[in-house]
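Re: beginner question about structure tokens

> Can someone show what the tokenized structure looks like for a real chain? I only ever see the sequence side.

Sure, here's an example I had lying around. Input first:
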Amino acid sequence: MTATTITTGAPQNVTSAGTAQTGTSGKLWRTGALAGVAASVATSATAAIAHTLDVPLTVGGKSIPLVGFAQVTLVASIIGMVLAVVLARHASRPRRTFVMTTTALTVASFVPDILADAHTATKLTLVLTHVVAAAIVIPALAFRLSD
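And the corresponding structure tokens:
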């Protein structure tokens, strides 16, 4: 006797981890791009506000341009999108794995800021920009992942 499997509904891609996906990658890229742009604007605004409050945006005697905050945030967001896509395909619990991994990476990203040759207010501003970006990008991408 043989077993027969009947499927109904939209075709789905089944990953090696056994999770079904229907257009997850496209949704992740769109969501990540929007979140990355929003986070870039937010980190630049955070830095601009700090600058107006006379926080020196200098590390090692070199000034950090406001556009630099946006650029670094956008690059980090792209890395987050790639991580989300990979985890969506290969992790058994993509959302949980993504949130835990990106939270740990966010905390690790504080280390260079804390060790930087800069004023304490500058260090706190740099850490705050990481938190602002993470608070926007991580939940947006996590929302699109299954668990």
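Each token stands for a local structural state, so reading them left to right follows the chain. Strands lie at 13-14, 20-21, 58-59, 62-63.
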